[in-house]
Write the structure tokens for this entry.
Amino acid sequence: MNALVIGFGSIGKRHVEVLSKTELIEKIDIVTAQNISGYKTFKSLEKIDDLDQYDYFVIASETFKHFDQIDYLEKKTKNKIIFCEKPLFESDRELKIVNNDVFVGYVLRFHPLLQKLKSLLENEKILSATINCGQYLPTWRNGIDYRISYSAHKSKGGGVLLDLSHEIDYAQWLFGNMIDIRSYQTKISDLEIDSDDLVTMISKTEKGIVITLSINYISKITYRKIMVHTNENTYELDFINSLLIQKNKDGSELKYQSEVLERNTMFEKMHTSVLSDHRSICTYQEAQNVMKTISMIQEQNR
């Protein structure tokens, strides 16, 4: 298979690194303004005369470009696989896909302990969940001034709600779509950004499960956790320390620890899923459902 990676920022470079080691991919070209040694590059999608030479398109550009790029590929190609980095769009937008298969890069689904938690919850009556994630934005990307990153700019699809929409995706993957939301989205810190740096919400899903969720750019202590209460157990998953704890009514406790993941392990699993069995990968419809939830939060805080 031949792949075209669209965008060559930090995430685009990571996708190229992963795909270059994937046996299914024979050739990689890149859409970028940069000149990349060892790769054929194009300044834009429109500069490519023959899109049919590619089987796999990876959109790794800024969020605000995703809609136009998917739309362009949908109109110009058929029977292709299109992978788009998360989030799908910067807001809830309608784009019908009929000619190609589109998947979205919510890579956290491929964390072994999140998959373990999903399997443990399958036969339980889930009552509620609390999801928390925070990291200080200036520490996100080594060597890059956070003030010039897309995250800092609302017009480029930045902001913690979009950046950490992983949490919304996996919440809906585990518990069903959110249908009743009360939220608070704001810029509260002294960070030099015009995008939101804090989102807190409480919601109920279509399955009647109560979810509280808080995400931010402001925590100097990095954390990423989910706690789930069922009739029989409480589960706590700490992504940073790769530890899942299960504790039942009687106080008995089980611990599940995953090995320290190599830098690209989850990305490799994600691309393998897209190119093979589609297991666990976020579908286009699921990504649209995430955007609908994001849109409800955005509308409540205009």
User: Anything to note?
Assistant: Residues 284-300 form the longest helix (17 residues). The chain has two domains: 2-105, 108-261.
